[in-house]
Model the fold of this input.
Amino acid sequence: MPLLADKRPRYTPVDCYDEGVDTKSTDSEPNFVWRRRFYILLAFSISIILLVVGAVAYRLSRLTCPSLTPGAEMPYSPAPLKYVNKYFTGDPDTPKFMGQPRPELDQAWHDLLTGTLIRYTREELLQAGNATSVKHKDGGYKRLKQYLHPDYYYSHEDQNWDELYSHVDHCLESIRQELLCNADVNVYTLKWTPHSRFKPTVKVPQPHACVDWKALHGWMQGRASRLEDMVGPPESLYEGKGP
Done:
């Protein structure tokens, strides 16, 4: 039997050049690659900058005292508070406030308590809702120091001892509340020294974060007032209460 001829259609590939299509790369491809590399480099640079800024901010937050107390509303005060780090040991003023009564000690307390009465503007008082002194507790410390030496401070006058005791008791209670309000959370450690086999010495490895007292005291003294400047109470307050 004779073989039948294969009648399936035959196709010949058409060269793309016949259709007028340019197979070479267009000019837009290099521009696309350049833009992609640019955006990658830009994103990388921004990430590095944010990382450095975050590290610096964290470092500064570790070196400075926070301006707000977490979980509590800070009371308003016009006082320009700033904080510094310092150790309690080695304070050059310590000898002036310690020891037996003497003129140097009395002068040190007098200088410390200058600026107790502070002038506020009407707007500041309305915003604060109260007018108080930032140095009330220091006055209590001075009273306690004097109470330790009654023969020196009170022997020359007709002192009401019950009133004095009540005042000192009030000072102690105020200091107790102040200490609880501003609890010291510094880390204290113990170390052995030659002074004792049974009682180690307290060591403070970290500086405290303290209010810059010199700056604050200067502000207080600039606003200091006198008792003579105070407006007296209205007479209606004492009507029917005698002299």
